[in-house]
Design a protein that fits this description.
The chain has one domain. With 103 residues, it is an all-alpha fold. The protein is elongated and about 50 Å long. It is 86% helix and 0% strand. The longest helix has 30 residues.
């Protein structure tokens, strides 16, 4: 596994423990921000792996919103944590790709 992705995966696992006590509304805000940042990053669109992470984050965010609307806050919380992690991974992959291309 790429060291950057390994780092992100570790942070996601750590944030799960800390974030599991957050309200779904807070998790929605965090996930939405991470996805929006990835969507606005030109570096994300230039890298296949980053684009895949973004697509996964967007899908998880969409499904999480449906879960919240249906009253399933536990499923929504897990999806929102994953959406946030994938949004952050998309940005990290895009930036890594950009740095490699710039060498």
């Amino acid at each position: 596994m790429n060291p950057t992705l390994s780092h992100i995966t570790g942070l996601a696992a750590l944030s799960f423990g800390c974030a599991s006590s957050l309200a779904p509304v807070e998790l929605l805000s965090r996930a939405s921000s991470a996805v929006a940042r990835a969507e606005q990053s030109p570096a994300v669109l230039a890298d296949v792996r980053a684009s895949e992470h973004l697509a996964t984050a967007q899908n998880d965010l969409r499904v999480a919103k449906k879960s919240l609307a249906a009253g399933d806050s536990q499923a929504a919380s897990l999806l929102l944590l994953r959406a946030e992690a994938d949004g952050r991974a998309a940005v990290a992959c895009g930036e890594l790709h950009q740095a490699e291309v710039s060498r």
